[in-house]
Design brief:
Elements: H1 2-23, E1 32-38, E2 45-46, E3 50-55, E4 61-66, E5 71-75, E6 82-90, E7 95-109, E8 118-128, E9 133-138, E10 142-143, E11 151-155, E12 165-166
Parallel strand pairs: 1-11
Antiparallel strand pairs: 1-5, 2-12, 3-4, 3-6, 6-7, 7-8, 8-10, 9-11
């Protein structure tokens, strides 16, 4: 009887120890590309008009009609070495569209056998067309679970230079 109790206790301890690994797994399963918007002078700004962002080559809308935008979070693809995003900035008076290109590596992050793998990325470069965006700069190339700004998007002064609001 004592032998059976000891075996039951050992089995319980093993189950508890193995389940503890699940509690230590990373809670976030998608690393997000974080972008902030700046004017030509390097001041962080807020875009007052509507911004919609889609992934090129798909029907996926990633940002749908966002207004008063100063920061954007986007998922990156798991397999492509280059992600292409279509940014459409518009109001009732105009509609402008730019394309943002992000060159990257895809790095699988393995924590333990009990946890799912997670994809992280290293940005190798970024570029954009220039309808309402002026340029893009890589601020931090490691896309992981840290809340860092990865890309800085610099907007042109027109068409709504008087309406782009500087953040206080």
């Amino acid at each position: 009887m004592i032998k059976k109790s000891i075996l039951t206790l050992l089995a319980s301890v093993l189950v508890l120890l193995s389940s503890c690994d699940l509690l230590n797994c990373t809670q976030v399963d998608v690393s997000m590309l974080r972008m902030e918007i700046f004017d030509a002078s390097g001041n962080k700004v807020m875009l007052p008009d509507t911004l919609t962002i889609s992934a090129c080559g798909t029907d996926n809308i990633l940002v749908n009609r966002d207004v008063n935008t100063s920061e954007i979070l986007l998922p990156l693809s798991y397999h492509a070495l280059r992600d292409t995003f279509i940014l459409r900035y518009y109001s009732e008076y105009y509609s402008l569209q730019d394309t943002l290109f992000v060159e990257k590596t895809n790095d699988v992050y393995f924590e333990s056998p009990d946890c799912p793998t997670v994809m992280m990325h290293t940005i190798l470069g970024a570029s954009c067309t220039d309808e309402f965006l002026d340029s893009v700069e890589v601020a931090s190339n490691k896309v992981n679970f840290e809340e860092a700004t990865h890309l800085k998007l610099f907007v042109q002064g027109e068409p709504s230079a008087s309406r782009i609001q500087h953040e206080e």
